Amino acid sequence: MILFTEHLRAQSLAAAAPGQPDRTVLVGDVVTMNSSRQIVKGGRVCIEGDSVAAVLKPNEALPPQFSSATIVDTQGTIYPGLIDLHNHLTYNMVPLWSVPRKYTNRNKWRTSEPLYDSGVKKPASLLADNPDKDYRRAIVRFAECRNLLGGVTTGQGMSLSTSSGFKKYFKGLMRNVESPLDSTWPAAGGQTLDYSPSQIAGELVPALAKNRPFFYHLSEGTDGPARQRFLDLKLPDGTWAINKWLICIHCVALKPDDFDQIKQAAGVVWSPTSNLLLYGQTAHVEAIKDRKIPLALGADWSPSGCKNLLGELKVARATSHHLNNLYSAQDLVEMVTVTPAKMIGWDAMIGSISPGLRADLIVLEGKSPDPYTALIDANESALRAILIDGRIRMGEAGNFTVGSPQTSEVFAIGSKHYLLDLTETEDDGLGGMSLATAISKLSFGLQHLPDLAASFQAKVQALSLAGGADDWRLDQDMGNDAPGVMAMSAALDPQIAPMRLDPITAVDDPTFATRMKANVNLPAYAKQAF
After folding, report:
1. What is the mean pLDDT of residues 51-68?
2. Are residues 29 and 174 in the same domain?
3. Domain CATH number, residue 89
4. Dihedral angle, C-alpha 439, 278, 334, 249, nearest 10 °
5. What is the average pLDDT across 128-142?
6. Are residues 341 and 360 in the same domain?
7. Which end of the chain, N or C, is less surrounded by CB atoms within 10 Å?
8. 325/293 Cα distance (integer angstroms)
9. Rounded Cα distance, 176 and 153, in Å
10. Do strands 189-191 and 361-365 pair parallel, antiparallel, or not at all (unpaired)?
11. Residue 18 CB contacts under 8 Å (≥ 6 apart), including other chains
């Protein structure tokens, strides 16, 4: 558990009546992202248990039940927690890939690019399918923390398959759109690989009839076959497999008029960094805005994306500037808060700071005349605290937050030290792994990939002979190989070479900007974001 230092000074926890929820008041500039996009300078956010009880102006009286609540002056700006609607978490320990050429379709790099096999696919498989389960635990811990340290409180989940074939998702650190802890929240489904026309009729249409969000990677690429995946959504009877529950990811190949149909969907998820690195262009966002289609940001994954949404916001802004300032700073912040919350039907619970909504909050150091631009400009070490359900998951150590060594971990970001609360009541096998342990484990594994490859086949055979089949494995949704097949292929590949784990944050990665700018496909306007 992590507490604000003021909790100890006020001894509020000891004074609280038994059975009463904890009550805390955070003071600072409040960027509510509510329906009127109200910004309350010097405001107060009253947190009761896991929810926001009130948002007050400086001269408004506290609710009576907060008369003895702890008051914390954040000396900063308070925003809703960020929402990342597109991220392949099981690949996020793989270093940034040096993309060798421009592709016209994702299937060209995904299935027939040897450098992708050796630089992304096989290393990921060797770790994710390794008989040593600590690699899987480390992948989960690292991936979730990579998002959290960038202010992300809600994201796509970490999919698991059990030995019985049952698929489930981690209920861990971040709020998970595929597996909300509250059964009244609509749980999202999704499909990464392309549907055939028969699968659209047999699988997608029934999925969209379930009245829950469904993510579909649509038309990723620039060529005719990529656009055809959109055209395939038109059914034989002339109707479209598009409704208010479909969330379309990427849409790079779509022509402006195609978005007349996409207007019927819940919205589009935009990953400009990854689109530009792989294809040299991104979705036709001018057409998306012209048709008032909801647009959210997603960081995609580590091989061709930013570390987290703080980085993706910067590339989105650079792209917007290139398009004659298509989006304002407020528009961009909406893409990571209130808009994605509404797209998945969670806007009555998260996405803004309003009474009755969950207390998913981030606190940014300092105050600004333009808090929207301040958030886009921020790096990870500008964050002071991150709360999910009113619980401090990350807090600046020292005079701002304190934590118990038994339930919190100290971690450095930039020149600051932070406390991380990684304890879970339901960890799906993480076994209490710390972030430091995860980093150490993944660093070792990547540095010793040839050794892992050489021993992989023997370990799998020994495990099989001993009757020790794995009870759970990570799903790697960018491949369509059977469990362990790609890792077996990697075990026989002489091209597998040692790799280095990239630092988890951009502020701690001195080569990240240089490597991004060196990408052969990234246009000059986007390089200005790094």
Report:
1. 96
2. no
3. 3.20.20.140
4. -100
5. 91
6. no
7. N
8. 18
9. 9
10. unpaired
11. none
Q: Who contacts 332 (Cβ-Cβ below 8 Å, separation ≥6)?
A: 297, 313, 316, 317, 320, 372, 376
Q: Measured between alpha carbons, how far is 233 from 44 in angstroms, rounded to an integer?
A: 48
Tokens read off for 407: 């339930």
pLDDT score of 15: 46
Spatial CA neighbour of 173 closest among 490, 464, 391: 391
What's the domain count of the chain? 2
Q: Is the pLDDT of residue 295 over 90?
A: yes
CATH of the domain at 63: 2.30.40.10
In a domain, 69, yes or no: yes
The answer to whether residues 74 and 385 touch, using CB atoms and an 8 Å cutoff, is yes
The helix/strand/coil state of 144 is helix
In-domain check, residue 505: no
CA separation, residue 3 to residues 187, 425, 521 (Å): 31, 19, 46
Task: Quickly tell me which residue has 């389960």 as its tokens.
Answer: 133
**Tokens 């040593």 — which residue?**
132
Q: Are residues 74 and 188 in the same domain?
A: no
Determine the residue type at 336: V
How many other CB atoms are found less than 10 A from the CB of residue 407?
A: 12
Residue with tokens 């799906």: 428
Mean pLDDT, residues 387-416: 94
**How many CA atoms lie less than 13 Å away from 142 in the CB half-sphere?**
31
Measuring CA to CA, how many Å separate 329 from each of 71, 303, 321, 326, 377? 30, 27, 11, 10, 10
Calpha distance 214→178 (Å, rounded):
9
Query: Closest Cα to residue 261, out of 230, 303, 221, 295?
Result: 230
CA angle 460, 462, 467 (to 5 degrees): 95
> Residue 14: pLDDT band by 50, 70, 90 thresholds?
very low
Classified as helix, coil or strand, 29 is: strand
Domain that holds residue 37: 2-81+351-403
Dump strand ranges (E) for 49-109: 51-56, 70-80, 82-84
The helix (run of H) or strand (run of E) holding residue 167 is strand 167-169
Assess if residue 364 is contained within a domain: yes
> Residue 194 falls within a domain, yes or no?
yes
Q: At what angle do helices 435-447 and 133-148 cross, to 10 degrees?
A: 120
What residues contact 395, with CB distance under 8 A and at least 6 apart?
2, 4, 384, 385, 386, 401, 403, 418, 419
pTM of the model: 0.95
Encoding tokens for residue 384?
Answer: 């002071």
